[in-house]
Amino acid sequence: MSKITIKELACMAGVSPTAVSFVLNGRPGVSESTRKKVLDIISEVGYTANISSRCLALKKSFNIALLYSESSSPFDDLFYFEVARGALECCNARGYNIVLNKIRYENGRAVLPEVITRRNADGVMVFQDVSGEVFRQIESYGAPAVVVDSYADPGRYAGIGISVPSIVGTALDYLIAGRHRKIGLITTDFIPDLKRQVTEAFPAKLTASGLEYHPEWVMTDARDEDSAAVCAAKILEAPDRPDAIFCTGDIYAIGALRALEKRGVSVPDDISVIGADNIIACRYVRPSLTTVDYDKALLGSMACEMLIRRISGEEVESVRMNTLGICERESAKKPCAKDKRKTFDCTAAFYTDSTKRLCGTD
After folding, report:
1. HTH lacI-type domain spans which residues (predicted)?
2. Helices (runs of H) and strands (runs of E) counted in the chain
3. 64 vs 97, 143, 185, CA distance in Å?
4. Pick from 70, 75, 58, 56: nearest CA to 24
5. Which of these CATH numbers, 1.25.40.10, 1.10.1040.10, 3.40.50.2300, 3.40.50.300, describes 164-294+323-351?
6. CATH number of 6-49
7. Which of 329, 323, 319 is nearest to 348 (CA)?
8. For residue 215, which of 238, 195, 190 has the smallest C-alpha distance?
């Protein structure tokens, strides 16, 4: 079959060739319904643009650089793989290529990859918050940027992340519904904005729920599973132990599980443990990890949409998404259905790996 032209696509979609061109190039000026109609037709007929011709005609590379920093834990990569999948699907639908690369640091200064320094990227997605200096360094090469999994205050730079009050609220509502009243916390100081927001939201939520805040059960220096295990051990040294520990990352929860097992603490009979991120490893630790879940693919696709709007010259505001809810497994005591309905004040779902259905809502 001969190659389909933009005019033929326009005829199939019942729109003008200009509208099709706007959709293909990620430009504003068409309604969302028109954009969806054109993208559906493109997907149905398998249309692919001539990238070389587009690059020359529009003076664009149609590359989006996806930058990440070297991680202290391989579990971080599991989280960002799912985010990248959502970004990749969105970029492909909009006619962009993803170029994956990492930010290196030499003598405290960021060394950007050549795809940025040679101006071969139309835009940049950065995994995790970076300093304002690094962000400005990226944009100095003419490529607008968006930070993915951001906890920075709105206005510092364009970013998308999960709402910290939503994360903390989802976890604590679930634990409280499971009759836990003595709750500890393991989080990180690696991302200062995250630490600040968590250490504000956690005691505020406990107080609002009529529970006492115990600073001796709060550890803020986890960086990976090993340091999280040390944090959990310190919590166990307190004169009085908590009956649950909330960890702001599954990495930290996995480390906590290891420390509790080593000291003969039964999970969840003695202490419940709940994580956040719902990485695939949660299914395979023992006991399997109950965790706060996010739509990681949506996080990536929304970041891509924000970036394409910035490439087109639009102003965008930072976005904070809510959690999906709790994925119930074995590491935390489960609330009864009555307590779920009464206590869990959130639009989120309760589900398990086996059902993926709402439960406790009938």
Report:
1. 4-58
2. 13, 14
3. 6, 9, 37
4. 58
5. 3.40.50.2300
6. 1.10.260.40
7. 323
8. 238
- How many whole angstroms from its chain centre is CA 248? 12
Same fold, 63-162+297-321 and 164-294+323-351: yes
- Report the length, in residues, of the chain: 362
Encoded amino acid at 177, one letter = A
pLDDT (tens digit per residue) in 71-115: 545 556 778 889 999 999 999 888 888 998 888 888 878 889 899
176 in Cβ contact with 343 (< 8 Å): yes
Going from the C-alpha of 322 to that of each of 115, 139, 168, 292, 310, the distances in angstroms are 33, 29, 11, 11, 23
Q: What is the dihedral of CA 183, 277, 294, 209, to 10 degrees?
A: 10
Grade residue 323 by pLDDT with cuts at 50, 70 and 90: very high
> By CB neighbour count within 10 A (0-12 exposed, 13-18 middle, 19+ buried), where does 239 fall?
exposed
Nearest alpha carbon to residue 185 among 145, 234, 136: 234
| Predicted confidence (pLDDT) per residue in 213-260, tens digit | 999 999 999 999 999 999 999 999 999 999 999 999 999 999 999 999
What's this model's pTM, rounded to 2 decimal places? 0.78
pLDDT tens for 11-40 read 888 999 888 878 876 677 788 888 888 888
Spatial neighbors of 158 by CB under 8 A, at least 6 apart, are 144, 145, 146, 147, 306, 310, 316, 317, 318
